[in-house]
Amino acid sequence: MNSVGKSWLLLTGLIVFYIIYLLFGALVFSTIERPVEEQLRRDMDALKQEFLNQSCVSAASLENFLVRVLTANKYGVSALRNSSVTSNWDLASSMFFANTLVTTVGYGHTTPLSDTGKVFSIVYALIGVPFTMLVLTACVQRIMYPLVIAPVCLLQRSGLEPRPATVVHFLLLLVLVVLCFFLMPAAVFSAVEVSWSFLDGLYFSFISLCTIGLGDFVPGMQPRQKYRPLYQVAVMVYLFVGLMMMYLLLRTFHKMSDLHGLTSFLQLPRCEDSDMEEEREPIVHEDSRTANNVTEKAASKPLDPGSQPSYNTINKG
Amino acid sequence: MNSVGKSWLLLTGLIVFYIIYLLFGALVFSTIERPVEEQLRRDMDALKQEFLNQSCVSAASLENFLVRVLTANKYGVSALRNSSVTSNWDLASSMFFANTLVTTVGYGHTTPLSDTGKVFSIVYALIGVPFTMLVLTACVQRIMYPLVIAPVCLLQRSGLEPRPATVVHFLLLLVLVVLCFFLMPAAVFSAVEVSWSFLDGLYFSFISLCTIGLGDFVPGMQPRQKYRPLYQVAVMVYLFVGLMMMYLLLRTFHKMSDLHGLTSFLQLPRCEDSDMEEEREPIVHEDSRTANNVTEKAASKPLDPGSQPSYNTINKG
């Protein structure tokens, strides 16, 4: 198979495995957390009934009642009648939770109740977070040509100087991302979610795609929402593609900074060179003494990053 | 000034500016959110009093009461008597919130109540998130030599082959990070926070340093905690240094993957070369036709990342 075919096969494999990993996480979280949640929900109902049955409400009994209501709420179990119809740990919701873990968004609108759930969250994220970064990197790598390289070259062909071309391209890409991944989704969210304003939708999109994930606005949390599982899957796809575009924007900005000398001014690693492995002079030396030489050289001025040796001065053996 | 001095001056400048940016954020958040929070707190007290004064509690009035209690709780205003002594928007807490925004951890234990606060959060994170990444990258860049390059060279000098040396070094670094940034902090948190077990502490450290930040466990949220502002600042420092170490670990892993051929197997950009700018053959061509040539070349097989042109084939003009 040629390298183009192999490249796409690899990417498809990664994405399929990513979906399987999310489904696996959803199944495990659902299995672990659903019984605990149901128990807490029953306790909450009993508590409410008991509270209503008492003849007179004292400040102390109210305080005691509220402590338990707020604790349950922390774990995503609401004491309200409306919200108890759906579970936070059905398959779609568990998958949504698994997705917020591996993308590091972490809304925290629902969190594991049991110690087993906490341990599984750690193990699941330990594998899932780097894997998601890998899948995102692989995707961004494949859309670099159509969305960055080709447009920049096109701008240059149309007569722009190279540096202005990269700036114009970055600004165009920025407008495209803001429009398609912030403003349009904000309009959709404010239409679908009854209590959200346009600003709330924009705030949600921004807080999510920066992976901050405060969790004060989470889609699909309203009672009696139609097609809730489908909606949650759509939000997951939006988050994934959105994160991909944010990463693309970041890489493009990094590359532009390289070209405009900002990276070298700040003495930071440059981005641009990582794509050009094949076409470069080899830096890896066959001489095994190189590592020692480099150490001595670096030790003389260890704080200048430009002169620091890197892993690639090490003989690959 | 020599380049070592300039490099450190730059880093110090970045860190000082980072602290100033956090303080600025804290001041603005505190100014915007504190009055709104105080109003909500007063409303909550009045609501509780009114609820207690009624002769008989009906299911409807309880439901109505709980809706408002849970909404206020979402914004970090608890209806409990104990927790109303401290504000979520005093200077230290606001700085802690600002820090969770710019590091993308985003616990969401407290969130902006007003629209002004939401808009400011967006603008603040828009500048703060890339800036924090810049500061973290600059710091990691400076600790690469003592924590990665030097130890690997030392391992090689002591007779290890280059590839095993990088593996041994990575494992040692991993143990160091797990010990100093997960196990030890977990022990400290479980000692300081009354209701946290060791597992809770570990879970908090992990969820925070992966920037997931679910927010089910947030330090310094218990009522009547001594030296709360100081404790919050300590947690902020822990988060910053911890994130730096996580980033270092990630870069080291990326470099190790390069060396072991994993990166090229997955056709991803390599990491290792970004440190070696100065010592390499220039790839930037003086010929302005290069960009066009590269486009044509790339268009013939656009999907093979290895052969894709990058920004550095563009004439720097």
TrEMBL record, chains A, B:
Q: Where in the cell is it found?
A: Membrane
What parts of the sequence cross the membrane? Answer: 6-32, 122-155, 167-189, 201-218, 230-250
GO biological process, alphabetically ordered? stabilization of membrane potential
List each copy of the Potassium channel domain by range.
85-143, 178-255
* Protein topology in the membrane: Multi-pass membrane protein
Kindly state which keywords UniProt assigns to this record, in alphabetical order: Glycoprotein, Ion channel, Ion transport, Membrane, Potassium, Potassium channel, Potassium transport, Transmembrane, Transmembrane helix, Transport
Q: Cellular component terms, GO, for this chain's entry?
A: plasma membrane
User: Which sites carry carbohydrate?
Assistant: 82
Q: Which InterPro entries match?
A: 2pore_dom_K_chnl (IPR003280), 2pore_dom_K_chnl_TASK (IPR003092), 2pore_dom_K_chnl_TWIK (IPR005408), 2pore_dom_K_chnl_TWIK2 (IPR005409), K_chnl_dom (IPR013099)
Disordered: where is this region? 276-317
User: Which terms in the Gene Ontology molecular function aspect does this entry carry?
Assistant: outward rectifier potassium channel activity; potassium ion leak channel activity
**What protein does this entry describe?**
Potassium channel subfamily K member
Matching Pfam families, A to Z? Ion_trans_2
Q: Which family does it belong to?
A: Belongs to the two pore domain potassium channel (TC 1.A.1.8) family.
Q: Where is the composition biased (Polar residues)?
A: 307-317
